[in-house]
Every structure is written in structure tokens, then in C-alpha cells.
Design a protein that fits this description.
By secondary structure, the protein is mainly alpha-helical. It has helices spanning 2-21, 23-44, 67-77, 89-95, 137-164, 189-216, 219-226, 231-261, 269-293, 297-314, 326-332, 336-348, 354-387, and strands spanning 56-62, 82-86, 103-107, 129-132.
Length: 391
């Protein structure tokens, strides 16, 4: 058994030497996940202070010239949660298609009738139009709520203010909004570094599998198989080399994230290391699975890119999973990326302890074992048929 382990390690050392032989490619292998994670973090970063709260950009058009309509429009445009630009109706129609911005509120000419509104009146109601680009449906709902709030505040002030006084119309309660987290280590880059690191590990595993497919088409594979080395040792040596390089990529990426963007491990460090190990092994097992069922290199590459992007999206590696529809969230529970992401989120910013991370570690390790078993069995069977001239 010791001899077999020595063979596996020797084969892994050979692959590490080949990986480091092309220094520029090796450096890019470590730089690319850092760049991806940093780019996503910069795009989705939000200021933590209240003064930097996100505002809704929109356009406002006032078609009437009544004092009530103008007052409502001015108060709405000056609200603390909107970034409004007063334009004409023609300008709105021209700019909505390009999402500059993607939402517009139009106060019609008959909106002035609302100045004479009385409770219980059944007259036709003036219609405020909320126009939006098809890609901005959520922002349109946000605008609808803000318009309703501005109009009702104005009506309450005009109708009830002279009777009860403006002070009586003040909100009888306050809304206290804060992040539900006791962990100072959280920042907006945590999700990006977790997700982009996991995605790149899958791509690295894919490249390893494609390299194995390429080797099988060359004479180097025949020379390797002519040596007194069992095939399963060759495959495990390939998996070991891929996993170790993947683990180094994880450490490099998170070290950069820690020192540059403040990404910290607020939970179990041991849990983080275990998750890094099983994620790296998953990368290696994915590579062998690609080589086992991929067929030709070109066909395997196209299919793998599609699959990796799909499991990355559903697994919450790009955006938090709560933005996905319910059926997609349920489906994602059957993917190893979902559990790996949950585990890394837990130990990096949610403060999860070692035992809290074991569920994610176990699920990812289970997927890894299944992928590895299927890949080795498939490759051994394929090689046996090949030696008999049946493939």
C-alpha cells in the first residue's frame, strides 16, 4: 500500500512540475479568481453608512399646471429615497428604452381634481402613470409605493392639518432599520470572494479534465500506461495534483481578499479549512468526471461551460439565492455549489462554529465521493475496452 501511495504522490509531483513549467499560465491561474472576486465586489459594494443609502433613480413629468399637482410632484421629487429628474413626457419615452433611468412617474393633467377630493367620494380617480423599462419591474413597484406615500401625505396635510394640526399628523412610530448581524467581519466583498472562488475551482477542475482527455489522445498516455502503474493510481495522482493546486488558489484568493478588502473568517477557522479542502477535492473529482463522460475535448468544453455557469447561478455564487424564484431555490439544494456556498458564508461572515459548518462539509464531501467513484469506474472500464480494441 505504501508503494501505491508513493506512486500516486510521484504522479502528482509530475503534474505540479508541468503546471509550474508555464509560469505565466500558472500565475494567471491564481490571478484570475482574485480579479473576478474583486470585480464582483466592486460592482455590488454598498456604503455601510445611512447617508450612502441607495436611492431610486427615476424621471418625473408633470402634465398639468395646478398648484396641488405641482406641490405633490415637488415633494415627491425631493424625497430622501429618490433621485429624481424632472423632464417632459417626450423625453421619458425617448430615454426609457435605454434605461436612462428605467422608471418614470407621470402626473396627468387631471390630477389637479384630487385637490377637491373628500373622503367617501366615488368620482373617477385620476391615474398617476408609472412607466418602466421591461427590465425594471421591481424598481417600478418601489416607485409606486413612494408615489402613494407622497400623495397621501399631501392629502392628509391639506384635509386634516387645519383641523387637528400638523403635529397630530406625525408618524406615531419609528422604523429602525439595521443589519441583523453581530459579526463585525461582514462586508459586501464576502459573498463575491466566496462565490467567485468556488466558480473558478470548477473551471480549474474542468481544465484538468480536458487536459486528461488531451493526454489520452497522445502517445504520452500510451507510455504512461505501459509502465507498471495501475490506472486508478494514475487517476488518483491526477486528482491529488488538481486538488492541491485548487487549495492553493483558495488560500491565495482569500489572503488577497483579507488584506485588500477586509474579508475575514469570523467563524471557525478549522471549518473554513475543511470547506476549502472539500471544495478543492470537488474540483478534482469534477475534472475526472469531465474526462470520464466528456467524449471529445471540444464537446466536453462546451457542455462543461454551460453546466458550470448553470450550477454557479443556481447555487448562489453570483447573486444571493433569495433573488431566485422558489422552484430554483428548491432545485439548488440538490447542487454541491449551494452547500459549499452556504458553508463558506457561514464561516466567513455569519460566525458559524465548527459544528455548524459540518453539514455543508459533509454534503460537499458526499458529492465529491460520488463524482470520484463514478469517474474512476467509468475511466477504468473505458480503458479496459480500449485495450481490448472495443473502443
Amino acid at each position: 500500500m505504501r508503494r501505491r501511495l508513493s506512486l500516486i504522490f510521484a504522479l502528482a509531483v509530475k503534474d505540479w512540475s508541468l503546471f509550474l513549467a508555464d509560469r505565466r499560465a500558472a500565475i494567471l491561474g491564481f490571478v484570475v479568481p482574485v480579479v473576478l472576486a474583486s470585480a464582483f465586489g466592486l460592482i455590488f459594494a454598498r456604503p455601510a453608512d445611512k447617508s450612502g443609502a441607495v436611492k431610486l433613480p427615476l424621471m418625473v413629468a408633470v402634465e398639468g399646471d395646478g398648484t396641488f399637482t405641482r406641490a405633490v410632484a415637488d415633494e415627491f421629487a425631493a424625497g430622501p429615497r429618490v433621485e429624481a429628474e424632472v423632464v417632459s413626457r417626450a423625453e421619458i419615452e425617448k430615454r426609457l428604452a435605454d434605461r436612462r433611468p428605467g422608471v418614470a412617474v407621470v402626473f396627468p393633467a387631471d390630477f389637479e381634481r384630487l385637490a377637491a377630493w373628500k373622503p367617501g367620494t366615488d368620482a373617477d380617480k385620476p391615474k398617476v402613470q408609472v412607466l418602466h423599462n421591461p427590465l425594471c419591474a421591481s424598481e417600478a413597484q418601489w416607485a409606486e409605493g413612494l408615489v402613494s406615500e407622497a400623495v397621501m401625505k399631501k392629502l392628509a396635510k391639506d384635509r386634516l392639518g387645519p383641523v387637528v394640526g400638523d403635529s397630530a399628523l406625525a408618524m406615531p412610530f419609528e422604523v429602525n432599520t439595521h443589519e441583523q448581524s453581530d459579526h463585525a467581519g461582514f462586508n459586501s466583498y464576502s459573498h463575491s470572494f466566496n462565490g467567485m472562488t468556488l466558480q473558478y475551482l470548477l473551471f480549474w477542475g474542468m481544465e484538468s479534465g480536458l487536459l486528461l482527455l488531451r493526454d489520452r489522445q497522445k502517445s504520452v498516455w500510451n507510455r504512461l500506461r505501459a509502465a507498471p502503474v495501475p490506472l486508478w493510481c494514475v487517476l488518483l495522482g491526477k486528482a491529488l495534483s488538481t486538488a492541491v493546486i485548487a487549495f492553493c488558489m483558495v488560500l491565495t484568493t482569500f489572503t488577497f481578499g483579507h488584506f485588500v478588502f477586509g474579508v475575514t473568517i469570523t467563524g471557525s477557522v478549522l471549518g473554513f479549512l475543511l470547506l476549502a479542502v472539500v471544495a478543492s477535492l470537488l474540483s478534482a473529482a469534477t475534472g475526472l468526471l469531465v474526462a470520464a463522460i466528456g467524449g471529445t475535448e471540444a464537446r466536453a468544453r462546451s457542455v462543461c461551460i454551460l453546466v458550470i455557469l448553470g450550477v454557479s447561478m443556481l447555487g448562489g455564487l453570483w447573486l444571493p439565492s433569495f433573488v431566485l424564484p422558489g422552484w430554483a431555490r428548491d432545485l439548488s439544494l440538490s447542487l454541491p455549489t449551494t452547500w459549499a456556498m452556504r458553508g463558506l458564508d457561514g464561516v466567513t461572515w455569519q460566525g458559524r462554529d465548527f459544528f455548524g459548518s459540518l453539514a455543508s462539509v459533509s454534503v460537499v464531501a458526499g458529492f465529491t465521493a460520488i463524482f470520484l467513484a463514478v469517474a474512476v469506474a467509468k475511466l477504468v472500464s473505458s480503458e479496459a475496452r480500449r485495450r481490448r480494441g472495443l473502443a
